[in-house]
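Lecture notes, structural biology module. Today: joint structure prediction for complexes of two components.
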Amino acid sequence: MNKFQGKPFALIGFCAFTANPDRLAETMRREKLNWRTFKPARETFEQWNSPATPGYYLLDAQGVIRRKWIGFPGAKTMDEAVESLVRGVKSATKPD
Amino acid sequence: MDCGAARRFAGLPTQNHALETPWRATGSSGSTESIPRESFSCCATKRRATPQSKTLSRVASLRPVFLALAILLISVSPSPAATPSEDHKALLKEYNAVTAGIRAADTDLKRKEIVGRLAPYAGRFVDLAKAHPNDPVALTALKQAIQVMGNTDSAATRAWETNAEHFPGETNPELAGEITDLVARNHLSDKELLGVVDRARYGYRLEFEKILASTAESSPHREVKALATLWHAAFLNDRLQALRLADEGPDLTARYEALFGRDYLPRLRALKANGAEQRMEKLLEEATQYTDVKSPFGDTIAQRADHALFELRRLSPGKPAPEIAGADQNDVPFMLSDYRGKVTLLYFWSDL
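The predicted structure, tokenised, for the full assembly:
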């Protein structure tokens, strides 16, 4: 996902489970996980029907769910889907 | 080897055969002939023996044979028959020992090797259930067979995400059908079926749907029926998700075929074409009536069903993502909608 740095794209995590929620930042630094993430929150997680991990929701710039993968769909599939939406944002914001 | 040679070999003093009367043996023709002493394998005492003592000494000479026979008999004769429960305990112990290795494995290759060793235990648990169909251990063994299949299938599919190693899909492809038939034949009214239902829900094998469907339909136990109804819907949901993934990623198609057989994806498509989504919704609506039955997670079956219905109706492509408000890893509050204006990938992850 590094290729989308500097583009209208954000990777936001939702940590479903971690061994020690109070030391999440430390764990992520150690594991070199560089995304911003919601800390575990049971109520929200259950509201989203406790998705299996990894689970991905791809939202467009308006916050509408465009793709959903419960399970890893493969890097190529994800990159292409993100790319296609990012391209849409760029062309929508491009000055005439 | 003659007696002397044997003794020499053994480092024992030899006897002087030259001092002894030549031993005579009677041949089958009745004629008597002199046989060189060296032809006999044993020594002077034999030559001096009376008929009675000869018999005794022959018996004595056969002692090693008797001993060997006795050992053989002890080793092949059935030990006091193990009970089904003891058989099960022994098998479980063996399985757990192999499973323990997977936690210690620190490379994908090691994990792959252990997963390969785990897979055959599914068949062994089924064999145990077949050997004792009327013993309570049968249902436990079937539950464990499903669990083994689920674990190995899960390890294989997870490996697709993390590395290029293909985990072995060595489970007998007919085993899932066999387990399903055994459950349907012998255990549908069993209260302990709850554990099997809980395992079947996470199974990848399409045959397990029958366990969930028949239990939901015919279990006389309310809590078993409730869980089977909910998990039947969850099973359908998971399989439809898998189909979506496979249809989007052609590289996954080959992997599914290798692991679950060439007919797996066509069967998933048939499941979808036969109204799996509608069935799922109907099952979830049914499950909302179980407000008094606990789920394995401590909430109720009805609450779980509500969340699943929420996903079905509100978390589908085309629907606005519900808001999430929480704290980040540095305890800074933020909201999902803060990223409006950007394409956002919301990634549910876990470090466990």
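Point to remember: The two ends of chain B are 70 Å apart (CA to CA).
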